[in-house]
Amino acid sequence: MRRLDQLLANLGYCSRSEARAFLKKHAVTVAGAAARDPSAKVRAADVLIDGEPLDHPDGLLLLLNKPLGLVCSHDEREGPRVYDLLPDRWRARNPQVTSVGRLDKDTSGLILLTDRTELVHKYTSPKHKVPKLYHATADRDLAPELVALFAAGTLVLDGEDAPCAPAELRILADRRTAELVLTEGKYHQVRRMFAATGATVLTLHRVQFGRLTLGNLAPGAFRSVREDEI
Ligand code: URA
Description:
By secondary structure, the protein is of the alpha+beta class. It contains six helices and 15 strands. It has three domains: 2-53, Structural Genomics Hypothetical 15.5 Kd Protein In mrcA-pckA Intergenic Region, Chain A, CATH 3.10.290.10; 61-125 and 212-229, 2-Layer Sandwich (Alpha-Beta Plaits), CATH 3.30.70; 131-209, Alpha-L RNA-binding motif (Alpha-Beta Plaits). It has helices at residues 4-10, 19-25, 88-91, 117-124, 145-152, 189-195, and strands spanning 2-3, 28-30, 33-34, 41-42, 47-49, 52-53, 61-66, 98-99, 107-114, 132-138, 168-171, 177-182, 201-209, 212-213, 222-224.
């Protein structure tokens, strides 16, 4: 049971101080009875707003096909943000919706967004080792030796002490594009791994995160992830 005003504020409907006005403006019922007291203790499943159940009362977990040019930071000074793609009510949620790890501004593809802090910790924890598949284009032909180098788990990036964990590289037929599976997420890791070999990454797209794939989601589109998918 939670206070109704707290619940409405957490789910982005209004602030706690606006809850009383919200209850006047909307037909809010709790187990069928009209709700007037913002401090009433309620079960989320019993609440209807204008006849509709609450919007994702147990938390949001979204899979976004991140377009190029957006940042995963919340700081508006860093540029347009992935969160700006979301409906206002989702952006007003508390805890706030945040990305599970980050993709650079110049990287596109699969990113999870959630207000479930436990999922952020779980999937960004080094212990968890979620495999993440990237598709990269380089500025030059990639030498076949890179496959063994990345797999060895000995590559130390500029400014780091610990080597990168073993990573699986597949160089595609044109030799400038490759698929790379990482189980960790150091800052700018893919770009820095290629840079360590003298190559520059020109395009980078994340195709898969654990078992999740983009399917046919267009750039900028997102969908909810079901519990049984993760
Ligand atoms: N590696 C990078 O260099 N950038 C990303 O966005 C993700 C992985």
